[in-house]
Amino acid sequence: MTLLPLEELPRPLPTAAPRPVPARLLRTALSLLPLLLIAAWAAVDWRSLSDGTARLASADPWWLLAGVAFTLLTWVSAACVRQGALPERLPPGLLLASQFAAGAANHVLPASIGAHAVTLRFLQRQGVPLPRATASLALYSLVRPVAKTLVLIAFVVLSPGLLRLGDLVPDRRTLLVPVAAVGLVLLAAGTLLVFVRPVRGLVRTALTDVRQLHTRPSRALALWGGAAAAPLLQAGVIFSVGAALGLPLSWTQVAFAFLAASTAVGAVPAPGGIGPVDAALVFALVGFGAPTGLATATVVGYRVLTVWAPLLPGALVLSALVQRKVL
Question: Is this model's pTM higher than 0.90 or not?
């Protein structure tokens, strides 16, 4: 009995390798995902959408047009802050389109996660290194609340007689909640900075970029000017909607009410701040003397203009940017 050589032994038939998912199919799925999320959200919150739209249909159209203009300017201010937080020059048109698309993602995921994810992908596609892109997102997230707080303080200092604080000032027990939250955030940040080495590298990159940006007046103006203009533009939207519905408050009162409400509960991780900010804003408007029903209608109309109306166009722009490989 002879033994066959090893090379003549029958070999197992080759198995077909798993076929990878085509990149085009993946991009198509990512393009349709925002539209599916919008449809699900509309089904859940359809009553608020329909009520707000019905109220806006009977409002003054010219004031609503002013509200639309203020809404458009909010994306311009966001694009200015994004550019001001980065030394590299970004294409203005694509940057504005990315912020419009990021607005749709921001209203789906909490704590601005959606907007930051879209912006991070856009910056990487523009050739910005990941550490620098991440540092710019951190600077953007830090500058906006700081600028809003400074604007709020300016309102209090410049208009002490016009702004009736009254019931809007929380008691000491209520103040313990935000103070404790800030303390926990600082403790967590300090712990990460001490024990996590990549975080230390990110902080060094961020500090280097901050020093470089503030030596360039155009970047500093875009960063801080855009951040300070953003809450004022949003207040302009609320005032325009209120004026269209007959809200008996001045622009200064409406602006202060929005600044106080968004500063007090803006840290709550809700999608786009919807929910906690709305309730606090209604409470602040009522505190200034507005009827409860009219204040509620104003806030609902504000959300229709800033969230629901641009949501579908923003999702379509997001899908188009994904298809064109800008994101």
Answer: no
